Amino acid sequence: MTTFLGLGAMGTALAATLLDAGLPVVGWNRDPRRARPLAGRGAVVADTVDKAVAGDGPVEELRAAR
């Protein structure tokens, strides 16, 4: 299971690609509304970073551009 911390444009696109391929995804975002579309596609949405990274799969951190 791959975890995405940050579900902006890039995080959402990457997570969606994995979901489309049938792979499991965990997502977290500061604004939980950003995760809703992925939840509807089968992603597990974590409500805290600690819960998001509790698994044993890779973690992708995508920070907002500044």
UniProtKB/TrEMBL annotation:
<dbReference type="GO" id="GO:0050661">
    <property type="term" value="F:NADP binding"/>
</dbReference>
<dbReference type="InterPro" id="IPR006115">
    <property type="entry name" value="6PGDH_NADP-bd"/>
</dbReference>
<dbReference type="Pfam" id="PF03446">
    <property type="entry name" value="NAD_binding_2"/>
</dbReference>
<dbReference type="InterPro" id="IPR036291">
    <property type="entry name" value="NAD(P)-bd_dom_sf"/>
</dbReference>
<feature type="domain" description="6-phosphogluconate dehydrogenase NADP-binding">
    <location>
        <begin position="3"/>
        <end position="55"/>
    </location>
</feature>
<protein>
    <recommendedName>
        <fullName>6-phosphogluconate dehydrogenase NADP-binding domain-containing protein</fullName>
    </recommendedName>
</protein>
